UniProtKB/TrEMBL annotation:
Name the UniProt record assigns to this protein: GPC5 protein
Claim: Lipoprotein is one of the keywords in the record: yes
Naturally occurring in which organism (per UniProt): Leiothrix lutea
GO BP term, example: regulation of protein localization to membrane
GO CC annotations, alphabetized: cell surface; extracellular region; plasma membrane; side of membrane
Family to which this protein belongs: Belongs to the glypican family.
């Protein structure tokens, strides 16, 4: 009553053993593909982690630099500015990691939050009644009167351009990881598991436990079993080319690092611009939002403090170098995996599974 290992000679197999063999080949095939995938998965998942760590290091550096700007040059508003600064860099991080947000919305939200502070602490430091309604009016007015000049839009342009490739690379890495997960758990068809049993275990039914499949026979069976996985070859090659393009885009210049480390400078220029145009801004705001309560006495607006560049270049250079080294190492490995799905049958038939350097092997019917 054997269904797979039918043979003219006497056999030591039963139908139940054939079923056990089918379960065994399914388990073994999954383990074999997992073993092949391990290095590739390790490289992709490792780079996802390394990319995030290096990027977060750059972000922390840029955030600390921006925070120190307020603490050294704009002390009256430093404490209140801490939250908008933190939100800005959180939004940038989420954008890079693929969240449904934009650089423009993050930057403009930051400047919306910044204007009430700049207006009440630097331009008109005598304001005592900064109510919720008055603050909200200032936020909304910012969009119309553009107190920060072209600096806010310039920052949007610079960050959008430099962060785009990093966002795409982050999403591509996640996609690569998902592809590997999917192929590992691809189900074997009934015909495939029967063919694998015939190739690997039917010789055992004849007592031939040391005879292994012929190379050509193994390749035919594996190619049939993995036809759906092999079809990924064209898309995988295209995926590797896209990864290479994105990695080069991110690494070809220091745009990402320069844009992040220059945020503090753009914010400083924007605040200086608002201070220089203080009287005009006050006149417009008074018309739109009304006149808030002022302290007694003649309080002049905060003096404009020129800011020298903060020097923390060592941390920045280390993070930049680390990121570039990881990019080069990663893309070099990924280029070698270009034929991964095209050669998967050959790789599974390599090693101990088949008989090499011997004239005797199993061809599916007999020892030849």
């Amino acid at each position: 009553d054997l269904q797979i290992c039918q043979h003219r000679a006497p056999t030591c197999c039963t139908k139940k053993m054939e079923e056990s063999y089918q379960a065994a080949v399914r388990r073994e095939r999954t383990q074999s593909i997992q073993a092949l995938n391990f290095e590739l998965r390790y490289m992709i998942d490792g780079h996802i982690t390394a990319f995030r760590e290096a990027f977060e290091s750059l972000l922390r550096f840029a955030e600390n630099r921006t925070s120190s700007l307020f603490e050294t040059a704009y002390r009256p508003m430093a404490k209140e500015a801490a939250e908008p600064v933190k939100e800005l860099f959180t939004d940038i991080s989420l954008y890079i990691l693929g969240a449904e947000t934009t650089v423009e919305s993050a930057v403009l939200r930051f400047f919306d939050s910044l204007f009430p502070l700049v207006y009440s602490r630097l331009i008109n430091p005598g304001i005592t009644d900064l109510s919720q309604d008055y603050t909200e009016c200032l936020r909304l007015t910012r969009q119309d009167i553009n107190p920060f000049g072209h600096y806010s839009k310039n920052l949007v342009t610079e960050l959008s351009k430099s962060l785009w490739a990093s966002r795409m690379l982050s999403q591509a890495l996640r996609l690569g990881s998902e592809v590997i997960n999917t192929t590992e758990h691809a189900a074997l068809s009934k015909e495939c598991s029967r063919a694998l049993v015939k190739m690997q275990y039917c010789p055992h039914c004849q007592g031939l436990t040391l005879i292994r499949p012929c190379v050509g026979y193994c390749l035919n069976v594996m190619r049939g079993c993995l036809a759906s996985v092999s079809e990924l070859d064209g898309q995988w090659r295209e995926f590797i080319s896209t990864l290479e393009y994105l990695t080069n885009e991110v690494a070809s210049s220091q745009e990402l690092e320069t844009a992040l480390s220059g945020i503090w400078s753009s914010v400083n220029e924007a605040i200086l611009h608002a201070q220089l145009n203080g009287p005009q801004l006050s006149a417009t705001v008074d018309k739109v939002c009304g006149q808030p309560k002022q302290q007694e006495g003649n309080l002049s607006s905060a003096s404009i403090v020129p800011v020298k560049e903060v020097t923390e270049t060592q941390t920045f250079v280390m993070a930049h170098t680390s990121l570039n080294n990881k990019r080069r190492e990663f893309i070099s490995y990924m280029k070698r995996s270009r034929t991964f799905y095209a050669s998967i049958a050959e790789r599974l038939c390599d090693g101990d599974l088949v008989m090499r350097d011997s004239s005797t092997c199993w061809n599916g019917e007999d020892v030849v």
